[in-house]
Amino acid sequence: MSLSRSQLAVLFFSLAYIVPFSLYYISIKDFEFLWYIAVLLIFLLLILFTVHKTHFTPLILWGLSIWGLLHMAGGGVPIGDGVLYSYKLIDIAGNGEFTILKFDQVVHAFGFGVATLVAHHLMAPRWAPSASKTLLYVAAALVGMGLGSINEIVEFIAVVTFPETGVGGYFNTALDLVFNSIGAMGAALFLALKNKNNV
Q1: Domain range spanning residue 45?
Q2: Is 29 left (phi over 0), alpha (psi -120 to 50) or beta?
Q3: What digits encode the pLDDT tens for the residues 115-137?
Q4: Sign of the alpha-carbon torsion through 168, 30, 84, 47
Q5: pLDDT digit string, tens, across residues 11-44
């Protein structure tokens, strides 16, 4: 396996936060986030062994790695009476579990925006030249939203597997799906504007 210098930089950056966060979550016996780290490592290995075929751009690779860092920090960095995930960035609306805008929601939007870029990158070479590029952007956003739903299933598995989690209830899940969709649609709009001559 041969990696370029930019790919190695992303790999080392990723390991630089995965290892310490793994040790931290082991030390506090946070099995929920150890589960998430296991999922993260599976995706890291998948990307590592397929990047020679996928040819992910530096933007995508850094986006995926930063998403992982934000997720690890969200559950492990204490702030106030909770952790970073529950921290309210801007008081837009609601309270309690229905609070908007929290760090968690920004991470969901960012993460599934990146997932939409991944979907577009993988789909674009196989898209018929005569087919609508607008439809490609819509399809990529829908894939991003679908991946967001899979993420909620992963969180649900954590809820039913571990006695205590920080996942939250119905409103949290619904808001996660909303912000996943915002991120996916935002990424699709970014792609459309970036390639405005190919809409």
Answers
A1: 5-198
A2: left
A3: 999 999 999 999 998 889 999 99
A4: negative
A5: 999 999 999 999 998 998 888 788 889 989 999 9
- Beta strands (DSSP E) in 15-128 are 78-79, 82-83, 88-93, 100-102
**What is the tally of structural domains in the chain?**
1
Extended strands (E) in 5-156: 78-79, 82-83, 88-93, 100-102
| β-pair partners for 78 | 83
- Please give the structure tokens belonging to residue 142: 């829908």
Distances in Å between the Cα of 37 and the Cα atoms of 31, 32, 144, 157 are: 10, 9, 21, 14
Question: What is the C-alpha to C-alpha distance for residues 103 and 76, in angstroms, rounded to an integer?
Answer: 13
Q: Alpha-carbon distance 53 to 160, whole Å? A: 36
- Nearest to 97, CA basis, from 178, 169, 181: 169
Rounded to 5 degrees, φ, ψ at 136 are -60, -45
pLDDT in tens, 181-193: 999 999 999 999 9
Asked whether residue 78 carries a pLDDT value surpassing 90, the answer given is no
